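Blackboard transcription, Thursday session:
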Amino acid sequence: MLLQPIVNLVEILSRKGVNDAIISPGSRNAPLTIALVRHPDIKTLSISDERSAAFIAMGMAQNLKKPVTICCTSGSAAYNYAPAVAEAFFQEIPLIILTADRPKEWIHQHDGQTIYQTDIFGKHVKQSFEIGADYSHPDAIWHIERTVNNAVNLANTFPKGPVHINIPLREPFYPAENEQIRFDNDVRVIERLDTENTLSKEVWATLLQSIEQYDRVLIAGGQNEYNPALTAVLQKLQDEFNFPILGDAIANLKFDVISNHDIFLNQETDNLRPELLITFGKSFISKSFKTFLRKNKAIEHWHLSLDNHLIDTFQSLTKVIPVQPQYFFEKLLEDIDFAQFKNGDDEERDGFYLDEWKKNNFKAKSYLEHFFLADFHQKQLNEFYAIKKLLDAIPANSQLHLANSMSVRYANYIGTAPEKQIEIFANRGTSGIDGCVSTALGAALSTDKLVYLLIGDLAFFYDRNALWNRYIPDNLRIILINNHGGGIFRMIDGPSKQAELADYFETVQSYTAEKTALEADLDYFNAKTVDEFHALSTAFLDHNGKAKIFEIETNSVYNTEIFKQFKAGFSA
Amino acid sequence: MLLQPIVNLVEILSRKGVNDAIISPGSRNAPLTIALVRHPDIKTLSISDERSAAFIAMGMAQNLKKPVTICCTSGSAAYNYAPAVAEAFFQEIPLIILTADRPKEWIHQHDGQTIYQTDIFGKHVKQSFEIGADYSHPDAIWHIERTVNNAVNLANTFPKGPVHINIPLREPFYPAENEQIRFDNDVRVIERLDTENTLSKEVWATLLQSIEQYDRVLIAGGQNEYNPALTAVLQKLQDEFNFPILGDAIANLKFDVISNHDIFLNQETDNLRPELLITFGKSFISKSFKTFLRKNKAIEHWHLSLDNHLIDTFQSLTKVIPVQPQYFFEKLLEDIDFAQFKNGDDEERDGFYLDEWKKNNFKAKSYLEHFFLADFHQKQLNEFYAIKKLLDAIPANSQLHLANSMSVRYANYIGTAPEKQIEIFANRGTSGIDGCVSTALGAALSTDKLVYLLIGDLAFFYDRNALWNRYIPDNLRIILINNHGGGIFRMIDGPSKQAELADYFETVQSYTAEKTALEADLDYFNAKTVDEFHALSTAFLDHNGKAKIFEIETNSVYNTEIFKQFKAGFSA
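(Written on the board underneath:)
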């Protein structure tokens, strides 16, 4: 008979809104598998490679904005989850990790699939719980039901993140044939209420005073999910009150923010230094921006974050303000608006600082657009051009996943038109190339939108097991920039001058995705020339049909030339 | 300029005999990469997928019988090593794990490729060292040189295993163009002398007395590397002194040991209970053997092991004897021999207990051989038959790697002829399917012998990135048993009766290896029928030519029928 507390654990997950689970096959986790699959309100998928399974779950959780369960057998299976768990932790994406285990007494006894699973994810989970192997004592049952409540509550509390429950199980693992599972109506569901962190009148007054005292206030957003309400208030702060708002592509600020800073920030732009810097969100892609701010430190730097970690990306932090950015900026808008109304228009914030940023941004944007009009792009296909054309063409309301390494960097130069409201994602928690395809697949499985993935060949083949399953949805679109190696190493000065470049940094590899596409039954397009690229783009961009890969094969040396030309050609 | 202490670290590795390194591309680890690649006495390979890289290193270290270095960049890269690190830990294979890291001050600062790397492998390394980011203070240099000595010494000390050094590095990572690296002749090499654990005369006398007091003494070997001297002494103990010696396929005891126990041990064989059980080596494959011994507990159970963990696989342990098995058995042989010489032949150990085991083993072996003579094997191809034929045919002095799940179980029933001295390996430390191809590849890269891998489809595709590199040697031979899912789940009673069998346990998958073979440039053979199988076997078994895959596609339902028939047909 299936252990009732395990059935209850699954019932509690469902009651608490965790209705999706990715299961990897195994025997030790069979009781969990059976309870998850048979639960009427839980949708399950079976993914063999645990590394991919966990990234798929993360991609789903990101779209669903709630935890997804991953469930695996005992032994090294759990360790294959670790890369995705670390990414989810730093990207603050909720996951419920259920690892089946052998009971404690079997650890390190030379008896299969048993490793040290307690706390196996180290500091990369919000908490690691462990239940006993006893499923009968009333206190044990109390512990299990309490633990799963605790885990889901914790995963959902800001900053969200992965939570682990290690679950030792003894044989037998399987219910009798045709045994009915009883999902108990009587399980304990313990709610943890959402709260809002707010600022007292007094505290707010001092903040407002500071803001009004500075002429050069820069607001900058790091990685953030698309939030229309936040976008709206920030847009007003920029348009009506002259605060420059800056955001990388992954900040998802869908209006005309300063977004070409990667192009124009350099040694000549120290004059843009802010007096007060207000930041929110997670990491920034732009190295130019980080270098600029670390050199030109703000007098005050406030970071809006509910995270207890003191994160001082720009080495200038003076205040942590643990509130939601939307709350803060709405309050700011309201009070500044009121102050202006009270004082009449004369007191309006001077626009000179915003103008300086806008002037630079406009120039950079124009440079970018002009760059791609040059004739040479029509002669030999280069990846930068191909990415520009495709990012310009992907339809409104799509999602765009950017793989790490060059993909995310190229895309941050190019951006997407804000009015198309394309949500942009990237695994910038740990910036690994290890799960980019799986993450995009997970996203595609949890939305009706088209999901585009921009990815280089190393990241693509590294994670090609993402496509080794029966669930590839029609809305997945992969733009594969294949320069047969890690092109980024040729772009940066250090490695490009070493004898080891091709073999140990770029890691030249010969694969194309043709066979992978065939195996996984995706439509496949391959372009090596400008003509092929233009001819095939239309078919690839067709909204209809099944999942597609557009592989763009270019020469790494030539790509480097083009990119260096692009970087060298801009003058502020 | 490249940091001299990093160059020295590499020089010390080489001086201490660690002359092989698998590097995964990255920027943070560039100083290590460059020093490793340029060292005249270190052989380096570049493998992009860190999960595969670490298993390849493990396969190499197993053959080389000394540590192999793995080296990766910062961030989630290190976590991809973890499955292989856990396997190496439990299988006691030495590895030197060099993870580049960002300096401490950059952890959790929303700035790329930075996770909590300190102690990242938990209890699955013998020790985790960490050096500082300071490479200039004399004490820091002393610490680095001491640490690498300590790490290699520790990896090489019984029980051997993986040792981790976390290495924080600041920019710049790259030497100037054409900069010469100076491998210092003056580095500190600190030797740790090998010792032998021996037993005092008094202790040995009491042991010998116990042995002589029991009539039913069973010697059983768990997983062990092939050791001709140990084999020779055990053979004499069995042949001349009537001790039954039992070993699974992975015990590598290359003489006529009791090896068909998986077939004949059952409820009817309680009479084989030993009074004294002497074990050595690591894990046992045979579940029948474990069940038999846990039920029929020996009065005394001695386990020969240098490991400080108290490992009580059969729940009967009474004495841990921390000496090398070869020392123990040579001493036993010598003293028993002398005692007999002194007493005359009358006192010879009675052979009845050995005979009981031998009788059963002979019967089981005959049953096995007869089973495969049946006509039905010629009608429809089944995997058990195909494996039998191929294991019988693989040439003497090859190596055989057994993937986990059904492959290792089938092979343990069938075995290989001892006189062929085929060394047998399997990842039975954690029994995961996650790195079986990579491990075999690592083995093939470090021996001139032919290396056969017997593997099922789930394990094969899980780890197909093993073949995504430029190093596939000609001596690799893959026998791929493709039943399009995890056949093991159909074989065992529990899952085979569940509605979730195909989707969530067996995990039906449609891939064949044809495209993988093409991409990786291996010869490829595919058999679906008995005729095809026989026709292609010869070509596959050809010693010459390049690496080959022989894919045997069979029906999972039919395989299960055959295997059940095999299991049911034997009567003791």
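Lecturer's comment: DSSP finds 21 helices and 17 strands in chain A.
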